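Protocol step 4 of 6: structure prediction from sequence.
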Amino acid sequence: MPEVAHRDLDQALQGAEVMWRAARGVSIFLTGGTGFIGSWLVDLFREANARFNLAARLVVLTRQSRVSPDPAVCFHRGDVRSFQFPEGDFSYVIHGANAVFDEPALEETILAGTDRVLCFCAGRRPAKLLYLSSGAVYGARPSRAGAIAEDSPLGPPASRYARAKQIAESMCGAFPATIARGFAFIGPRLPLDGGFAAGNFLRDRLARRPLRVEGNGRAVRSYLYASDLAAWLWTLLFRGEAGRVYNVGSDQAVTVRELARRIAAPVGLPVEVRGGETGDSYYVPSIERARRELGLEVRVGLDEAIRRTVEWHLSTPRPV
């Protein structure tokens, strides 16, 4: 997978040396370590392990055979629903494996995968399980609702994905798990054809064509940059309270139309709003809990996040 900027990893590790040094010699098992989020987790682990001389080990579950150039990271082949347990003791487990949104067996993959990981935890008894959930569990929320806090009630799930994530969170109650509810993200490696607004707009900008906004563009979102995301998740693993939920995202709200404009403006591309009655939902987290309890902050603002992401794509040519 193409390299990310050393600057991003360096920034993500600023002020975190004490936390990482406390993880000296640990073994960590990660599911979902080869996608957008997982690859950033792996990269930040590699950087911290080498920089702070941690002598730690990361085992990454993957469905494909892979060879790691770093001896501290090894890939364990298997499907999250049925993988053979890797050998050895593990201090920490991160369950981030996810199903593709339009996958026919989406719910079965999420639930069976979570059950398999919990069986692994039951046998190995790690000190902490971090489950990567989603802000989708809060359900659809109108714009007047405001920022979503962790104690907000979970609404009726708006998708099969959201329903499966709600159930998976409840399953994790059987183990002292920390729950990370992720919102929207941006950064290198974000899929440009995965149905994400930010990815679609970036794809159009890189192709130098008009950016198309489906709906009326009034939906409100926020975007956490990938290096901030990775730093937050490692902090939740090492320092988050077991049995507690934390929102993971930016609290800098922006409409989808404004997001398109800010991606298009630097190169003078037009923005086309398709129109329609839908699109005034509000999907922005309150991050006061993460800020107050763990000192986490949004370090990379949206415009800088866009600039860095475009810069990475231009230096790593890909078909668009």
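Step 5 (inspection) to follow. Residues 193 and 200 are 6 Å apart (CA to CA).
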